[in-house]
Design goal:
CATH topology: PUA domain-like
CATH architecture: Roll
Protein name: YDG domain-containing protein
Order of helices and strands: EEEEHEEE
Keywords: Nucleus
Subcellular location: Nucleus
CATH class: Mainly Beta
GO cellular component, one term: nucleus
Distance between the termini: 17 Å
Domain YDG: 1-115
C-alpha cells in the first residue's frame, strides 16, 4: 500500500517505484503542528514488513500494488481513496541509512517494484 507518508528517497514513476518496508516508525509533530512519520529504530531483515517483501522478491512472487489518495509522489490525480495499480514484481532490495533530525541514523530497507507487462494498460 502506497499512502500517507513516503520515506526519504522513495520515488514513483509510471511503471516503476521505489518504496520501503513497513515497521519501526513513530509519529512526530513538527513545530507548526504538522504530523509525519519517521524511523524510531533501524529496520531488520527479520521484521515482518521487510521479511515478507524479501520473500516475494526471492520467490519471484508478483504483488498487487494499491495506491491511496494521500500518497504524495505521483504526477497524476488519484481518483478514489484507494486504487489498484496492478501486478508488480520486486526486482531489487537494499538497506539505506536514513538521517533523523536529531543527528542519528537508522537503517531502512528499500525495494524497487516494476509493473508486469502481461496485464491491461494502466489506468493512470
Amino acid at each position: 500500500l502506497l499512502n500517507g507518508y513516503p520515506a526519504q528517497r522513495d520515488v514513483f514513476h509510471r511503471g516503476v517505484f521505489v518504496s520501503h518496508g513497513g515497521g519501526r516508525s513513530c509519529e512526530v509533530v513538527d513545530g507548526r503542528g504538522g504530523r509525519r512519520f519517521r524511523l524510531a529504530s533501524s529496520q531488520r531483515r527479520s521484521d515482518p514488513g521487510v521479511r515478507s517483501l524479501f520473500n516475494a522478491m526471492w520467490r519471484k512472487s508478483p504483488l498487487i500494488a494499491i495506491l491511496g489518495d494521500k500518497y504524495q509522489l505521483t504526477d497524476f490525480e488519484i481518483p478514489h481513496p484507494y486504487c489498484v495499480l496492478g501486478w508488480f514484481s520486486i526486482t531489487h532490495a537494499w538497506a539505506e541509512l536514513e538521517d533523523i533530525e536529531d543527528g542519528s541514523e537508522y537503517v531502512r530497507y528499500k525495494f524497487r517494484f516494476e509493473r508486469l507487462k502481461n496485464q491491461d494498460p494502466p489506468w493512470w
